[in-house]
Design a protein that fits this description.
The complex is a heterodimer of chains A (232) and B (290).
Chain A (H helix, E strand, L loop, with lengths): L1 E12 L2 E12 L3 E6 L5 H9 L4 E2 L2 E4 L2 E2 L5 H6 L2 E4 L11 H8 L10 H7 L1 H5 L10 H13 L5 E5 L7 H9 L1 H5 L4 E5 L3 H7 L2 E6 L2 E6 L6 H9 L2
Parallel strand pairs in A: 3-9, 3-10, 7-8, 8-9
Antiparallel strand pairs in A: 1-2, 1-4, 1-5, 5-6, 10-11
Chain B lengths: L1 H31 L6 H19 L3 H22 L10 H22 L15 E5 L2 E4 H23 L1 H11 L1 H6 L4 H26 L7 H15 L4 H21 L4 H15 L12
Antiparallel strand pairs in B: 1-2
Helix pairs in contact in B: 1-5, 1-8, 1-9, 1-10, 2-3, 2-4, 2-8, 2-9, 3-8, 5-6, 6-8, 9-10, 9-11, 10-11
Classes of the chains: A alpha/beta (232), B mainly alpha (290).
Chain lengths: 232, 290
């Protein structure tokens, strides 16, 4: 039984249509990656799930709750958190305050400040400085920790590797299995195909606002992915 | 010499009132990026509400705040949620125009209801009593209360903004309302609360102003100007800056008045312009903006 089930989702930015009928489902505890070129609609899709982008769908159901038309601030409370593209830390808040604000909705669960610090010990040493004064990798850790503080059942990660050095990317992705072990479903948008294929149970390839290919990484050939990624 | 010391002390005390006018304005701009042109008229509105409360209940002006403050909070919350939230966006102009219009509406409604007569709230002996420090140097109890109230308000606001869950939500929403929604923060509600809080401060400022000096429906814009000047002198970095801005304005006005009574208001504006020339971002500019 799927945690999240989406049928025929469309989304617009004013007159510009960004999503053309996306079908996608995620099982509990599953890791799903969305790959695709720039502008293929992956980020728009994540933002639609969180309610930040207005969307429509035949079916948009999360744990038996209809999410169509729900406000972003209500959707977090239902257990869907997002690590936004570009981290988006709050510049006026310290590292610790950035983490605490993630718990604003006071949704019950296992994640606490201590557990986030356990996962990313570097953050504890720097908890009182401004979040935006950290390095890119550390900022990404704060953004992940901040999302976890809302005790999500589903975590959406938008371009975790963007602008980070390969060694840092490894650190960041190294944290995901621990999150997954809590039974959190992951939906990851990633430009780095190899990274996505490595971590995902299933992959959706986006192309011009539609899904061009889907399947388990081991069942897909490089040629199939290349064709679905770039189009022909 | 002692005369000048007196002038400066009186100026500092006057500054407390200006700081209180300005703090509300600074919060509204700080949280919502909304320039509230109707701020002065809301101060006058609070004074008139206090007048009605006092006439009906017989409370003294300070006690009337237990009614006036919640009324102003509620007006603020619904003003924000019902009107001002719709004006917010990338463009600073719509909130400016709407609050300018609102300013005219409030002035005219007050004029219609209360007439153009000058009013004052009477607080009794406290208005005129003072502490004699030395020969020729005394501090009025009421101005002292005003300054201490301003300082207390700022301390409480600092605590609220820096130490509480709501304060974090205010700052996060101010930084980035979109991402704040991802934290489960209803930005529209937060904006409503911020406006309510600001108008709570306006209530206190309005009552203190009304005890201190005469008021009538037309004086709002002048109060707005002082509030603006105090905020800009202080910069937007901290509320303490706003207090200092208010004090500088108060001191400048008193020095001006000492030189020539006609110079009082002008001296305040000149001090403001001088600071604007040398420190265009105010004395304590915002630092963590990116």
């Amino acid at each position: 039984m799927s945690v999240l089930e989406i049928k025929n989702m469309t989304a617009f930015y004013d007159d510009f249509q960004a999503l053309f009928g996306i079908d996608l489902s995620i099982e509990k505890g599953e890791t799903v990656a969305a790959i695709g070129a720039n502008g293929a609609g992956k980020s728009t899709f994540l933002r639609s799930i969180t309610g930040l982008v207005q969307n429509n769908a035949d079916k948009f159901i999360y744990k038996d709750i209809n999410l169509i038309g729900k406000a972003a601030f209500d959707i977090v409370g239902l257990g869907i958190a997002m690590v936004p593209e570009g981290r988006k830390l709050f510049p006026s808040l310290s590292v610790e305050e950035n983490l605490l604000i993630g718990a604003f909705g006071q949704r019950p669960g296992n994640w606490t400040l201590d557990r986030v610090y356990q996962m990313f010990p570097k953050l504890k040493q720097r908890k009182d400085i401004a979040g935006t004064a950290l390095s890119g990798g550390e900022q990404q850790m704060v953004a992940i920790g901040r999302a976890l503080m809302s005790n999500p059942d589903m975590l959406l990660c938008d371009e975790l590797s963007l602008g980070l050095a390969p060694i840092i990317i490894k650190d960041i992705y190294g944290a995901l299995p621990g999150i997954k072990a809590e039974g959190v479903s992951l939906l990851i948008v990633e430009q780095d195909i190899n990274q996505a294929l490595e971590i995902a149970d299933r992959v959706y390839c986006f192309q011009e606002g539609k899904i061009s290919l889907t399947g388990k990484p081991e069942d897909l050939t490089k040629e199939q992915i290349a064709a679905a990624y770039f189009g022909r | 010499m002692i005369e000048w010391a007196n002038t400066i002390i009186q100026g500092i005390l006057t500054g407390g009132l200006y700081a209180m006018f300005a703090t509300g304005l600074a919060i509204i701009f700080g949280v919502m990026r909304l320039v509230n042109i109707t701020h002065g008229d809301l101060i006058v509105l609070a004074a008139f509400i206090a007048m009605v409360v006092i006439e009906t209940t017989g409370f003294n002006p300070f006690l009337s705040l237990i009614i006036v403050l919640p009324i102003m909070f509620i007006i603020g919350y619904f003003l924000q949620r019902g009107i001002l939230n719709y004006t917010l966006g990338d463009d600073l102009l719509p909130p400016l125009l709407v609050t300018f219009g609102l300013s005219i509406v409030i002035q005219n409604v007050l004029l219609e209801v209360f007439s153009a007569d000058s009013q004052r709230l009477k607080a009794g002996a406290i208005e005129t009593s003072s502490i004699q420090l030395t020969d020729g140097l005394s501090i009025g109890i009421f101005p002292l209360i005003t300054l201490l109230t301003a300082v207390t308000m700022i301390i409480l606001l600092q605590q609220l903004f820096n130490r509480t869950r709501l304060g974090r939500a205010f700052r996060a929403t101010s930084d980035d309302p979109t991402t704040a929604q991802l934290m489960g923060i209803n930005h529209k509600h937060i904006f409503g609360l911020a406006m309510g809080l600001a108008l709570g401060l306006v209530a206190i400022a309005g009552v203190l102003m009304a005890v201190r000096s005469n008021f009538d429906p037309s004086i709002g814009p002048a109060k707005l100007l002082y509030a603006f000047e105090a905020v800009i002198i202080g910069g937007l970095g901290s509320l303490w800056g706003t207090l200092i801005g208010g004090i500088i304005l108060g001191v400048a006005q008193n020095i001006g008045a000492k030189i020539d009574p006609g110079w009082q208001i002008l001296a305040g504006h000149i001090a403001f312009l001088i600071i604007l020339v040398f420190r265009p971002n105010g004395l304590f500019p915002r630092t963590r903006d990116d």
